[in-house]
Design a protein that fits this description.
By secondary structure, this protein is of the alpha/beta class. Helix content is 36%, strand content 16%. The strands form three sheets. Strands 4-10-9-8-7-5-6 form a seven-stranded mixed β-sheet, sandwiched between helices. A four-stranded mixed β-sheet has the order 1-2-3-13. Helix 10 (343-364) packs parallel to helix 12 (430-448). The longest helix is centred in the C-terminal third of the chain and has 22 residues, at 343-364. The chain binds pyridoxal-5'-phosphate. Pyridoxal-5'-phosphate binds at residues 132-134, 137, 160-163, 228, 232, 260, 262-263, 289-290, 299.
Length: 449
């Protein structure tokens, strides 16, 4: 098939290069250069791609000097260019930048601090550091397979877990052109909008059980149930106490539970630092990344001691940049600011304002089928019919782009791409919430006009 007739793989809120002619000359030139230099695999956001040159707190400024409210970027939980993180990185960069093959106290202090955030004693787990969330999940799967002697991995139907070969094999949201691994099995999303929430724990466990049987029948066994505990790419589902029965089934079958906390981790959901804690779970491995260094590339896993004992004995682990002295400085400063500035409490209080505002908007706009979320993480589903709950991607796309024109950044999520994804830095305050809701209200009124 020629590249001209090929369908592009699924991506939410992606710029369509066929509309290039509609853009100003300066943007067209940059996009041409990107295509020439970076090739065809990258995607830009928005129908009119944005070009930022500066950020601070919850604000970004574009090349023309226009100020935007950032209600989307979770990689900077303590806000763009937070001075404490910038200072910590700068200080460490000009003092020493070495790797984990030398003794250093800071990595130990951070590991101790981080491990103290999970249930049970610090001594119950080890911390291992990587550069990206993909890196962390890849290591988690290797450890799980080594520990269990089994190969199968169960994920949700529209999950994303990363970009290594092993992880693209368990990331169905990359679309049909990206093959799933023969040892990957999918279960439906625990969709509390379309299914009875009271039945979800049992239903989810039954789906997992079916896939365990399937994996066993094919000789793979189950190494792990790997779940984003906020089901981010599946459309964001943050109900509590859903997952325990499924995790129990996996453990009975000799597998492990890996909580992918790359999205919900570090306080995004307000009530708990980690998404799995909302389900009362104690994962065998927790992977983390994105918000960990406020934009500095640092990620990692927290793994139970017995789970990694044989792997660590038999196979050495080294990651040139993972856990280096500068990465640890960024991670420590970020965690300190999350605590010192009370950002989890802020996520709860500002989040409540946004949630109430979204529910009010839902009353006025019948296109909104469902509002859900926790802390500072929300999804707003558009449907064509409130009874049938048929996804309406066109409306979500229109809203996301109209919001960008009003200089507020949000995006889209879910298999059908029909849900708004609102996921601001955790320093988002009540004035920011007010601006977000005011603009969203105006955009929705415009749609109904
Ligand atoms: C749930 C989840 N896991 C893993 C990853 C991979 O992280 P990274 O892009 O840092 O490799 C992502 C990235 O979007 C993610 O959303």
């Amino acid at each position: 098939m020629s590249s001209a007739t090929r369908q592009r793989g699924p991506a939410n809120n992606a710029f369509d290069p066929d509309t290039l002619a509609n853009l100003p000359a300066q943007d067209r030139d940059l996009i041409h250069r990107r295509q020439e230099l970076l090739g065809p695999a990258y995607r830009l956001f928005y129908q009119r791609p944005l070009h930022f040159v500066r950020g601070r707190g919850t604000r970004l400024w574009d090349v023309a000097g226009e100020e935007y409210l950032d209600a989307y970027n979770n990689v900077v939980p303590v806000g763009h260019t937070h001075p404490r993180v910038v200072e910590a990185v700068y200080e460490q960069m000009q003092t020493l930048n070495t790797n984990t093959r030398y003794l250093n106290e800071n990595i130990l202090n951070y590991a101790e601090d981080l491990l103290g955030t999970f249930s049970g004693p610090v001594a119950a787990r080890h911390a291992m550091f990587t550069c990206t969330g993909s890196d962390a999940n890849d290591l988690a799967l290797r450890i799980a397979k080594y520990r269990t002697g089994q190969e199968g991995v169960i994920v949700t139907s529209w999950a994303y877990h990363g970009n290594t070969r092993q992880l693209t094999g368990v990331s169905p949201s990359l679309g049909d052109a990206s093959p799933l691994a023969p040892w990957c099995r999918r279960v439906p999303t625990p969709d509390s909008y379309r299914l009875d929430p009271a039945e979800l724990p049992q239903r989810f466990a039954n789906w997992v059980e079916e896939q365990i049987e399937h994996l066993n029948r094919h000789g793979h066994g189950v190494a792990a149930l790997l779940l984003d505990t906020s089901f981010s790419s599946d459309g964001l589902f943050v109900d509590t106490d859903v997952l325990a029965p499924a995790v129990e089934r996996v453990r009975e079958a000799g597998g492990l539970f890996i909580a992918d906390e790359v999205q919900p981790g570090f306080g995004r959901l307000g009530s708990h630092l980690w998404g799995h804690q909302r389900h009362g779970l104690d994962p065998d491995i927790v992977s983390m990344g994105k918000p960990m260094g406020n934009g500095f590339p640092v990620a990692g896993i927290a793994v139970k001691r017995d789970v990694v004992a044989d792997f660590g004995h038999d196979i050495r682990y080294f990651n040139t940049f993972g856990g280096n002295t500068v990465a640890m400085a960024a991670a420590q400063a970020t965690l300190d600011v999350i605590r010192d500035e009370g950002l989890m409490a802020n996520a709860e209080s500002t989040g409540a304002v946004i949630r109430n505002g979204l529910l009010e908007l839902q009353k006025r706009h019948p296109r909104i089928g469902h509002v859900r979320g926790a802390g500072l993480y929300f999804s707003v589903e558009f449907v064509t019919d409130l009874d049938e709950k048929i996804p309406d991607k066109a409306n979500a796309t229109a809203v996301v782009n109209a919001m960008a024109e009003r200089r507020v950044l949000i995006s889209q999520t879910g298999r059908a791409g029909n849900a708004l994804k609102i996921r601001p830095p955790l320093v988002f305050d009540s004035a920011d919430a007010d601006r977000l809701l005011t603009e969203l209200s105006a955009v929705l009124d415009g749609l109904d006009a």
